[in-house]
Design brief:
456 residues; alpha/beta; two-stranded antiparallel sheet; 14 helices; 15 strands; 17% strand
């Protein structure tokens, strides 16, 4: 007697599910409320609004302004996520979670899905595959390789006689492998989180580094949010190569004055006029300044390249310095943060350490995008702070100021390394370098992106 009743009940359930499927397929996703995370200085959240993405585990981050006991509190609470389970509205096949099981499955699926859309890259990742690796490694808290082999330009500081600058030499450096985890299965919560962030990457055109709060840059992983530029700079090639040289010399235990010296002494020896330090196997660089530090990435890399130096990192944005403080606290190194406009920040160190009057090395990756070029940037790039991108005077205003003022802040024999990408040699030499000795540095992208400026 229960047979007809059960058959009818199953038929009714089937019709209900069919009606729900038709309804979902007709939903206009453009009417969905767009969730924008609160990324203000008062609500820094290293977990990007979800406990599954937690690159660093800080309960607080210490800054050191003049006031006693300064702290920036990090709220570790997990707010309600309005995008919970909404990924089925973005992706017609709402059963996709049931079809994907392993890390390998999701790397393939995320990459394929991103390839269907006209998205912009270049902000910590160069393509859809690197976006998928960032997403998977961040959500699953796995090691953070971009690929099985990491490539960078390794400088030869002893170039041929007819070469005026160091020559780039291919150098392969193995990183931790993801292979060990490719066949590991994901939990339901991990699957939901990956699909939610994937939906936001496509729908809202948010760079993946902002969604995961993690960016891989020059062998380091940095915390980022929309208060800072996602780290990318040709200056990193110099610093990563210097770190490799220092580590290799220390590993081999070679003295700097060894007659059978098969490891370069320093990337910077062709420019600097300092004495050698046989203890650290690098030049005796004692003071480094990083202007427009943003997330603190270049400053932290400089501290790793020159362990005997104190690095001062200046930025005009208090919000950016709070992110830099998180990265300094996580990565370590002698880095003192300063708040102010370019060199004026040296008057306001956020620690009880008085900066020196002059420096052995100055690094600067200033804002240099013109107003015209800003209007042509993809939507993803407009998510970054305009203060960190755009400069007046056709993009040259801050470059001019940094080079003009550098003579007062360089030690005798010191060097300023300034990134000036996109303007070309002739324009920079004509408008910015008059009266200064300089040398163009060859990078992986060419020989007109970084210029070394010497004290007149």
């Amino acid at each position: 007697t229960w047979g007809p009743f059960l058959i009818g009940l199953l038929s009714l359930f089937s019709l209900s599910m069919r009606a729900l499927s038709i309804f979902r397929s007709c939903v206009n996703t453009s009417t969905l409320p767009h969730y924008r995370p609160n990324l203000s200085a008062k609500a820094l959240q290293p977990a990007s609004h979800h406990h599954l993405v937690r690159p660093f585990c800080f309960s607080s981050v210490k800054l050191a302004p003049a006031s006693p006991s300064p702290h920036v509190q990090i709220d570790n609470k997990t707010p309600k996520n309005p995008f919970k389970l909404h990924h089925s509205l973005y992706f017609p096949d709402h059963s996709v979670s049931n079809d994907l099981h392993t890390v390998r499955d999701f790397v393939r699926y995320v990459t394929s899905t991103l390839n269907k859309y006209d998205l912009a890259y270049g902000q910590g990742t160069q393509n859809s595959y690197e976006d998928s690796i960032n997403l998977l490694c961040s959500v699953l808290n796995l090691p953070f390789p971009i690929d099985t082999i990491y490539y960078h330009t390794h400088y030869n500081p002893h170039p041929p006689a007819d070469s005026p600058v160091p020559t780039p030499v291919p150098f392969y450096h193995p990183l931790p492998q993801l292979h060990d985890y490719l066949d590991a299965k994901l939990t339901a919560a991990e699957k939901d989180r990956i699909l939610e962030l994937l939906a936001r990457r496509i729908e809202e055109r948010i760079p993946m580094a902002y969604l995961t709060n993690r960016s891989r840059f020059g062998r380091f992983t940095f915390y980022v949010n929309e208060n800072v530029l996602i780290p990318r700079s040709f200056l990193s090639e110099l610093l990563v190569s210097q770190i490799d040289i220092r580590e290799e010399r220390e590993r081999k235990g070679q003295e700097l004055d060894s007659e059978n010296d098969d490891v370069p002494r320093s990337v910077f020896e062709i420019w600097l006029k300092c004495s050698q330090d046989p203890v650290t196997s690098c030049y005796d660089v004692r003071s480094v300044l990083d202007l427009c530090t943003g997330s603190g990435a270049i400053a932290i890399m400089a501290a790793a390249a020159f362990p005997c130096a104190t690095v001062y990192a200046s930025d005009i944005s208090p919000e950016a310095l709070q992110i830099a403080a998180i990265n300094v606290d996580h990565q370590g190194g002698e880095v003192v943060l300063c708040q102010g406009d370019l060199f004026q920040g040296l008057k306001n160190p956020l620690a009880f350490t008085k900066p020196p009057d002059t420096f052995d090395l100055i690094f600067c990756n200033p804002p240099y995008v013109s107003k015209t070029d800003m209007a042509q940037l993809p939507e993803e790039y407009l998510r970054e702070p305009r203060l960190a991108l755009q400069a007046q005077d056709d993009g040259l205003a801050l470059i001019k100021r940094v080079i003009a003022d550098s003579a007062r802040y360089l030690n005798d024999g010191g060097v300023l390394f300034c990134e000036v990408s996109g303007h070309g040699r002739d324009k920079i030499e004509h408008h910015c370098l008059k009266g200064f000795p300089f040398s163009w540095i060859e990078t992986a992208a060419g020989d007109d992106d970084v210029v070394a400026v010497f004290k007149p």
